[in-house]
Amino acid sequence: MNDIIIKNITRIVIPFAQIYGIFVILNGHVSPGGGFAGGAIIGTSLILYTLVFGREKGRKKFSHKASEIAETGGILIYVIVGLIGLVVAGRFLTNLGAGFPEGVIGNIISGGMIPILMIGIGIKVASTMISLFNLLIDEAI
Amino acid sequence: MVILNVVIVVFLILCALAIGKIKDLLGAVILFSAYSLMMSVLWLILKTPDVAITEAAIGAGVTSILFFAVISKTKRYEK
Fold first, then answer.
1. What are the two backbone dihedrals, phi and then psi, of residue A80, each rounded to the nearest 5 degrees?
2. Cα angle at A48 between A43 and A53, to 5 degrees?
3. What are the sequence ranges of the domains in chain A?
4. What is the pLDDT of residue A34?
5. CA B10 to CA B29: how far, in whole Å?
6. Using an 8 Å Cβ cutoff, are A12 and A26 in contact?
7. Closest approach of chain B CAs to the CA of A120, in angstroms?
8. What's the whole-model pTM score?
């Protein structure tokens, strides 16, 4: 699309959308939302960038290689945090029993490992959204 | 509040019937997006803001864009 209005509005809107997605992810354990919803918001902003500025610029910003690394990294965060609980306390995803700090209830840093899990899920979902869209666009029929 | 609920549910039913009837697939996707947006308002009224956020992001955003991508690869009108 070669419309100057759409391009400028997109440049303004995308940072706000991504900040809101990060806010939803980080507040996942004290307010509505969480890793999945916040990751979907960030993925939608990346899809908007690819739609407006074209496939080539989108590939330059978020390539297939980066998408692979983000997807595997996100799920690895989840598995490694779960394995820490398995090794220390004997059960997968053990939270406070495995020595994660409890924090003050209601703060961002509270709930043990839940914020770390939320960050992992958010990275995974965001990169999955953008790579689904790229796969559908690149597919030749 | 009851009247708002009834209006939203009637809108949802009309949208669902229209999606089944319409021949233009692009219009069907736009109707589906409107359905998802109203559904997220209904989730908010039912006091589940978590589901409302997810419905607005996934149902009205990502699903519509994926359907648009598929339509751009195939035909727009149903035979």
1. -65, -40
2. 130
3. 4-138
4. 85
5. 19
6. no
7. 17
8. 0.87
